[in-house]
User: Fold this.
Amino acid sequence: MSELFGLWLGALLTLGIFSFLYKDNPFYKFCEALFVGVSAGYYLVTSYWQIIVVKMIDVLQVGFDKMMVLGYFDFQNWLPVLGGIFGILMLLRLLPSIGWISRWSLALVVGTTAGLYFTAYLASNGMIPIKETIVPLELTYPKLFLAHTGSFLKDIPATIWCNFLNVLYTYGNWVVTLGTFCGLIYFFFSKEHKGVFGGVAKIGILFLMVTFGASFGYTVMSRMSLLIGRVDYLGTAFGEFFKLLK
Amino acid sequence: MRRDVPIVITAVVGVIFLLSYFTPHPPLNVLHNSASDIVMIIAAFSILLGVLNLIRVNLDKVSKKKRDWPFSIVLIAGFLIMTIVGLFFSKGRNFMEFGTNFRYLYDNVYNPLSSTMFSILAFFIASASYRAFRARNLEATLLLVAAFVVMLGRVPIGYYLSSWIPAGFRLGDVATWIMDFPQTAGQRAIMIGIALGVASTSIRIILGLERTYLGGE
Amino acid sequence: MNFLGKLLGIDRRIIFLFVGVAVALPLCFPEVNLKIEITDSVKKVYDIVESLPEGSKVLIAFDYDPGSMPELQPMAESFIRHCIRKKLKMIIMGLWPQGSVQANLALEKVLREKEFEDIKLQEGVDWVNLGYTAGNEVVIERMGSNIKAVFAADHKGVKLENLSLMRGVRNFSNIDFVYNLSAGYPGTQEWVQFAVDKFGAKLGAGNTAVQAPLVSPYYPKRLLGLLGGMKGAAEYEFLMGFPATGVKYMFSQSVAHAVVCLFIIVGNVAFFLNKKKKRQGR
Assistant:
């Protein structure tokens, strides 16, 4: 029974959010506020049980036991104390008079992230993609044509289709190299996009438009998938309701 | 003190992480690992900060009876119920297990609300496509054509619409070709551009030239 | 205002109604089976899991929330089903707070299936849920040197030394395959940047359709396989021979896409005809 009640509660809240499609209304605002509050509660509970208890309290307990029972100080087990101190400094942001102390914790996080990102982005998203763009641009198609002219002439229609596909995929490397190069030229704003440079940038824009079009297509797919999931859930809830009525 | 100490901390920690990428040996790796462990705990407290700030703002709204203040009560009530149930009435560390009160609230309140919030975007994307997506010039037309091909090629209907076309040229195949070649090229160009931007911003932060993260006074 | 003008200025709620019907109506016909074409990127993930010997350790990172459930949950269920069939050991974790609960949901659903009724999987031996930890990419980077420094215990507080599955698992070099289910940040990009590029992990991913184009440049050299959106989930279910949610939703997905395309065509036709009429009127 409680499962059924839960299903209907979920369905009611779903309809509350969907009511926004007609017009903004108090029912929607209620559901929205409830969502924010429940999310905040979820984050707090999860952070407490899975981080503060497991990574701080339990680890400190082990450190304490090692010190009291075995008589030695393990720095690794006392590191959460330092983490906790910086964490509390972060919380002081809530007090305007001494909120500036939270900058120390923030600086630690920002410094860590900056240090990690510099190498990670430069290597993973900079140098490796450039390396992957340098691909063989060997024109295999003319070689194939010259080597197999006899068999090509025997079955021209099938040959044309088959080889056109080969051409499309062989020249795929050219498309990737050209597209990446022209796209990068487009993003170089230190030089005016005029003449040859402007022409190359224009080709870059065309590639970027294809990229954005593909991204848009996938975005529509994603949003529709989410809606399908919700509508199916509502269908299940109404199905249970009608079963009960019968 | 208020700005100098954080800048020094950022610089020191940033340099430690930079150097440890190239020399993962003591003492750099010990400092690197310790800093990582501390940052993971600070991240948990950041979540707490966000939550407490949210509650503070809404309590302020209720006390001063600002616009839509009754909904702030709903927000605070939702937060308190979820927190109290999760901390005290849900088998402690096993709070996520099936059958606990916390799981019940997650499955029947949080899950439907969260899923539905994102699903209403489907309606808006359809409406926006209808009103704003116009093939005014070559670039827009190219965008439109690519979107069409991918939208139809990536679902079964694409096969049925183009099954009369020889294999290799059907909507699905063209969509795959677009994703594998021109789309990859464009994404790679964007990726490399972003990488250069992130690298330069990171080095500026480490050197103390970029201080916007410190906020005001 | 002429007909074209009215068509262009139509109330958006009518468009919403069309979209709602386009999505809901096909769900009333679950018996409709559409052809699912398998793409290379999905087949590669399937083949990698198929090639793993029994007892191999697979790390599954659940980096999504309920907002992305319809796309990623079917992928998660299919993958877990595959791992159980192949008798692989699953190490579950999450970089998003909701990730580990979503993992529990997927596991519970799969273990209730008829196929696995007689299989008694033991937590700590066949699978372990390490739970969630904050820190985003710092977590992945730290796991590369020492997983136990990040996860001292599983989500129930049982120390990793006391779990037979985690014995001998120090970092990514002791994990045979990493599978990431991602809806945004932190997600597949961070796994590629740190787990793959820095520590050489073997990575496959399931992404929402919004994310998939953004990570496609990493495929196939760094990202060994990629499932994109609900279509990716449907393809994997098809390969598994277990059509489930993903396949069920494909009819609805197809109709919805067709409706959006129709709207774009109608909008453009109306726009250009209206423009032409106004020019002629002048």
